[in-house]
Amino acid sequence: MPKPLIADKPYPSLEGICPDCRALRIISPAYASSTGELNAILQYNYHAVMFDGKGLNEYAELIDSIAVAEMLHLKILGKLICALGAQPVYTACPPAGFNFYSAKFVSYSRSLKNMVEDDLLAERHAVMSYAHMLDHLRNDRVKEVIARILEDEKLHLQAFGDLLAKMECPKGG
Fold first, then answer.
1. Residue 105 placed within a domain
2. How far apart are CA 40 and CA 67, in angstroms?
3. What does the pLDDT look like over 10-47, one tens digit per residue?
4. Chain centre distance of CA 78
5. How far is the C-alpha of 156 from the C-alpha of 116, rounded, in Å?
6. What percent of the chain has pLDDT over 70?
7. Model confidence at 170, in pLDDT bands (50, 70, 90)?
8. Distances (CA, A) of 162 to 45, 57, 75, 91, 117
9. Residue 29: what pLDDT?
10. Which distant-in-sequence residues (6+ apart) come within 8 Å of 103 by Cβ?
11. CA angle 93, 99, 105 (to 5 degrees)
12. Closest to 68 measured CA to CA, from 90, 40, 96
């Protein structure tokens, strides 16, 4: 498994975080909604496989490294959801037993450039969503976790932007 593309600093501890319905409601969409971490993992994995199939291993490895980072975020958010008082079921609003995640939200584009454009859009949304959460959270411990994840998402946004620029302006062109 590739090394995750993450900021070079630890994630805050989740120990001692107490149930908090308000914080739970605010962070839940980042877990398994149509624009959450679960969707990012599946989308980036699909795109990495497609790039690999075209022999673009360097690009595939970059996308894989971002997918692995999103897996880490999913795990952290799942543990955080538990600490906040809910089961981390794959819905947009745990613990609700409805509105389950669907892979229909994954970008199944056939164009490699469109895939990266979709990934860039997903990361822009992630950055905006996590920033919005920070504006609305009152729980400082949860804010620390979300702020740390946001740092990674900004790296991913930059990486996909750089990848798209490379694809639009290949070497020697």
1. yes
2. 7
3. 999 999 999 999 999 999 999 999 999 999 999 999 99
4. 13
5. 11
6. 97
7. confident
8. 19, 16, 27, 32, 11
9. 95
10. 42
11. 100
12. 40
Output b/e per residue, 22-35; b: 16+ Cβ within 10 A: ebbebbbbbbbbeb
Phi/psi at 2 (nearest 5 deg)?
A: -70, 160
Residue 6 lies in a domain: no
C-alpha distances in angstroms, 167 versus 65, 93, 114, 122, 156? 18, 37, 11, 18, 16
- The number of beta carbons lying within 10 Å of the beta carbon of residue 91 is 21
Range of the domain at 97: 21-168
What span, in angstroms and rounded, lies between the C-alpha atoms of 132 and 150?
A: 11
Q: Which of 45-49, 55-59, 86-90, 159-163 is the least confident region? A: 86-90
Residue 9 lies in a domain: no
Number of domains in the chain: 1
Report the CATH number at residue 86. 1.20.1260.10
Query: What is the average pLDDT across 139-167?
Result: 98
- Which one, of 1, 4, 2, lies nearest residue 156 by Cα? 4
